[in-house]
Amino acid sequence: LGELAEDAPAEERLDVLRKATRDHPAEPALWRLYVEELTDAAAGDAPVAVEELVAALRGGVEHGNLEFRLRLLWDFPEAVDEDELAGLAASEDPRILIGLAHARLSRVEPQKALEWGERALQALDPHDSDAVVQLWVLARLALCFLIAGQVEAGLQLGRRLRERLRDSGAELELARLVGHPWVLFDELVSVGEGLDEELLQALARVVLV
Q1: How does DSSP classify residue 80?
Q2: E strands, 72-174, in order
Q3: What is the pLDDT of residue 180?
Q4: Exposure of 89 in the CB half-sphere (CA atoms within 13 A)
Q5: From CA 9, how far away is CA 163, in angstroms rounded?
C-alpha cells in the first residue's frame, strides 16, 4: 500500500490487499488493513460485496483476531452458523458471551439471548476497570432487545445489570466513562414498563446512538 498514491482508487488499494492476504495469509496486520479498507469502501461509493467483507473478517479470525470474531457476531450474525455458535458456547470470555447473545437475538431467540447475556453479566467483575467497557456493551445489548421488540427480556437484562453495578459500587465509574447515555439508559430501564412499545423502541434507538 505504501507504493500507492494517497489518492489511489479504492479498488486499486483493495486489489493490492487481496493479493497480499493470499500471498501472506498468516500476517494478521494484512487482514486488519484489508478489513479496514473494505469497511471504508463500503461506507463510501465503492461497491463492496458483504461476502468479501465477511470472508476478510474470517481470514483474521483464523489467525486469532478476537476483534474480527466479535464483529462477525455483532454485524453479520447471519454469517455465523449453528456449529460455530455451539463451538463458542464453552467460552468464559464475556465479550464472546455478549456476542453470542446478540447472535441469538438476531435469530429471534430472546430467551437464549437473555441466558447468554446473564451469563456474561456473571462473568464480568464490576471492580475490574477493563470490565466497565464491557458492562456498557451489555447495556447496549439490552437496548438491542428493546429495539427488537423483546421488551420484557431487555428490561430484565437492564435491571439486573443496574443492580449488579449498584451492589458493587461500580455504577459511578460507568457513569463517568459513558456519561449522559448511561443516565438515559438508567431512566429507560426504570420507566420502560409503563411506556408504549413504539416509544420505548424509539428512545432505545436514541440511547444506542
Answers
A1: S
A2: none
A3: 93
A4: 11
A5: 51
pLDDT lower than 50: segments of the chain:
none
| Contact criterion met (CB below 8 Å) for 58 and 69 | no
CA–CA gap between residue 58 and residue 110 (Å, rounded): 26
Residue bearing cell 431467540 = 109
> SS3 of 90, please?
coil
> Torsion angle of alpha carbons 123, 126, 132, 136, nearest 10°?
70
- Would you say 35 and 57 are in contact if contact means Cβ atoms under 8 Å apart? yes
CA distance 92 to 201: 31
Q: Are 91 and 66 in contact, with CB atoms under 8 Å apart? A: no
The model's pTM: 0.87
By residue count, the chain amounts to: 209
- C-alpha 181/C-alpha 202 separation (Å) is 14
Helical segments of 47-89, H only: 50-61, 66-75, 82-88
